[in-house]
């Protein structure tokens, strides 16, 4: 308990590669939830004790595939109702996973527990530069309240420059659905 | 077609009764010529003993590869490190073969039977209700279907009764699908009901259990919600009852029970996913179970199955004070979770609801416990968030398979500890 600031947690965790269960790396982190302004994202400091796998090859394959599409990519319901993800959509899902991590971080407090539940809709946005841009509508599931929260996010990505969420906004739930 | 392929491909080996336990069939899609070449090289590595059921030809066209269990890890690493995308088409070849054998040996007189039902995919409410009838048909002396009430939208609430006779024997209650979006639970329920019927007379544990105890199994506990997840909103959780004075529909059926009803572990807002409803047991789906269990008078265990989080929970959710039987329930949970993990390594946490997940008021198991049902448990099945409610159908059978020993542990304990 850090009086006047908030509650600080020290975490020891293991990162596991989604694509390879046996590839793990240890990580330590400190998370400070602010007690004053509850709208402030928690402070996070972390250290990765080891090396993350190099993903250059996969990144470049994906990048080139999208760059060479004749029409902008559009897709919906990833995964679908049955949990299926078409193999070519898997990187789109992983990108959403990474980007939603940022959105979740920015909107987390001690009473939330968000997971990415589904990509409702994704649309590629044409760009003149080397970046890829995707406009996502995702559903976040908050385990604590059990609510499903639609969220829009604009995601930029480039193999060498990584992921960026340039814009995001919580969407109203349609009550008649 | 797939069935013929499997049989044809393995008929040579079948003669000498070669087993294919744990072997998988991977559907691989090469995205360029280089990857095609790599796949062909993979096929030539004799030490791996893989065989292509569908050869890699041109990029974009899937190739199907059977991989023996012992080579699985090596092959997957090869594919992943070369960024060759694949999916698991068949989780366990032996299981498929056994299933086929059963199917083929079945008499032609049987039009539909439970052995041709696809347990590895998600079904609609009609398909499930039809399957229930075939289960009863296939095991008429063990299984019967009873109706305990109607949902808000007047769908029948069906319960499968497993009984070897007697009169008002002690009973175990199981329910799945009370939260309609938790599709893995109804799917697990179907597989488990089928397993119970199949294993009576084969598996010593379930046989002893059913020789003294009846099992009541409600698979589609929230049919209106379930139909809604198919027709309109896959993420629907609650019932579909109309709330007076609100545009928002539905009550959380796992906050509607009379145990700590209306507390802070639920919401008074009809628009909320945890809305407790106007009063306890306001929901027909809940009232039907309350009336059934009260009317029965001899229910010794209530096991309510949810997803996701991978947890095994016992009362209380509405208060922090430990349940009087806390120690015994904890020990039993510990054993069940350990036996579950032994199947595929799936890790569960366990404990009281309030300690392990969150404060939750008006839950099924708290009501059951406070009404004399000592062995009251809630399962939260796979996964822990990667797919969440949208668990791939390829995980249905593994999930049900690993949950089975845990369920057995609880049921055996009920058998061995009468009260």
Automatic annotation (TrEMBL), chain A:
Transmembrane segments: none annotated. InterPro entries: CYSTATIN_LXN, Cystatin_sf, Latexin. The keyword Thylakoid does not apply. GO terms for molecular function: metalloendopeptidase inhibitor activity. It holds the Pfam family LXN. One of its GO terms (cellular component) is extracellular space. SUPFAM superfamilies: Cystatin/monellin (SSF54403). It comes from Ceuthmochares aereus. Belongs to the protease inhibitor I47 (latexin) family. Keywords: Protease inhibitor, Repeat. Residues 1-54, 74-177 form the Cystatin LXN-type domain. It comes from the Eukaryota. This is LXN protein. PROSITE patterns: CYSTATIN_LXN.
Automatic annotation (TrEMBL), chain B:
It is found in: Secreted. SUPFAM superfamilies: Protease propeptides/inhibitors (SSF54897), Zn-dependent exopeptidases (SSF53187). Gene3D superfamilies: Metallocarboxypeptidase-like, Zn peptidases. Its cofactor is Zn(2+). Keywords: Carboxypeptidase, Disulfide bond, Hydrolase, Metal-binding, Metalloprotease, Protease, Secreted, Signal, Zinc. GO terms for biological process: proteolysis. It holds the Pfam family Peptidase_M14. It comes from the Eukaryota. PANTHER family: CARBOXYPEPTIDASE A5, PROTEASE FAMILY M14 CARBOXYPEPTIDASE A,B. This is CBPA1 Carboxypeptidase.
């Amino acid at each position: 308990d850090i009086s006047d600031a908030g509650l600080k947690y020290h975490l020891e965790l293991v990162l596991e590669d989604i694509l390879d269960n046996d590839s793990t790396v240890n990580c330590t982190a400190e998370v400070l939830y602010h007690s004053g302004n509850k709208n402030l994202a928690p402070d996070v400091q972390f250290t990765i004790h080891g090396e993350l796998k190099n993903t250059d090859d996969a990144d470049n394959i994906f990048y080139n595939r999208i760059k060479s599409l004749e029409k902008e990519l559009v897709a919906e319901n990833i995964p679908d109702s049955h949990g299926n993800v078409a193999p070519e959509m898997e990187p789109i899902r992983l990108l959403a996973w990474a980007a939603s991590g940022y959105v979740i971080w920015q909107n987390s407090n001690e009473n939330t527990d968000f997971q990415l539940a589904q990509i409702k809709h994704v649309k590629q946005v044409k760009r003149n530069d080397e970046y890829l841009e995707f406009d996502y509508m995702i559903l976040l599931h908050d385990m604590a309240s059990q609510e499903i929260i639609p969220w829009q996010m604009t995601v930029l990505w480039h193999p060498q420059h990584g992921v960026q969420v340039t814009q995001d906004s919580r969407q109203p739930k349609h009550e008649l659905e | 077609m797939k069935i013929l392929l499997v049989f044809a491909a393995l008929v040579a080996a079948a003669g000498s009764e070669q087993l294919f336990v744990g072997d998988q069939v991977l559907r691989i899609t090469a995205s360029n010529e280089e990857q095609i070449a790599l796949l062909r090289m993979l096929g030539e590595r004799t030490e791996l003993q893989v065989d292509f059921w569908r050869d890699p030809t041109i990029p974009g066209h899937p190739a199907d590869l059977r991989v023996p269990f012992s080579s699985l890890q090596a092959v997957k690493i090869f594919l992943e490190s070369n960024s060759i995308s694949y999916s698991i088409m068949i989780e366990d070849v032996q299981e498929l073969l056994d299933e086929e054998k059963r199917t083929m040996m079945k008499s032609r007189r049987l039009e539909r039977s439970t052995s041709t039902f696809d347990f590895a995919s998600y079904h609609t409410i009609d398909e499930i209700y039809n399957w229930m009838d075939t289960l009863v048909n296939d095991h008429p002396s063990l299984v019967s279907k009873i109706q305990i009430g109607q949902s808000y939208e007047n769908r029948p609430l069906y319960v499968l009764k497993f009984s070897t006779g007697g009169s008002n024997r002690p009973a175990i209650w199981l329910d799945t699908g009370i939260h309609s979006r938790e599709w893995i639970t109804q799917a697990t329920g179907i597989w488990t009901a089928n397993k119970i019927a199949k294993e009576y007379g084969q598996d010593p544990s379930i046989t002893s259990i059913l020789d003294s105890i009846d099992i009541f199994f409600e698979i589609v506990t929230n049919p209106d919600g379930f139909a809604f997840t198919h027709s309109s909103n896959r993420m629907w959780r609650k019932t579909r009852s109309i709330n007076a004075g609100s545009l928002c529909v539905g009550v959380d059926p796992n906050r509607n029970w009379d145990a700590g009803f209306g507390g802070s572990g639920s919401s008074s807002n009809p628009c909320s996913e945890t809305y407790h409803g106007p009063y306890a047991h306001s929901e027909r789906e809940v009232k039907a179970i309350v009336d059934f269990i009260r009317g029965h008078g001899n229910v010794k265990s209530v096991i309510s199955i949810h997803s996701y989080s991978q947890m095994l929970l016992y009362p209380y959710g509405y208060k922090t004070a430990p349940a009087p039987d806390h120690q015994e329930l904890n020990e039993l949970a510990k054993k069940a979770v350990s036996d579950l993990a032994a199947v595929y390594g799936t890790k569960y946490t366990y404990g009281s609801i309030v300690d392990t997940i969150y404060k939750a008021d008006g839950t099924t198991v708290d009501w059951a416990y406070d009404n004399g049902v000592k062995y009251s448990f809630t399962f939260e099945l796979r996964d822990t968030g990667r797919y969440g409610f949208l668990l791939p159908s390829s995980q249905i059978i593994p999930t049900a398979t690993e949950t089975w020993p845990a369920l057995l542990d609880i049921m055996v304990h009920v058998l061995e500890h009468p009260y």
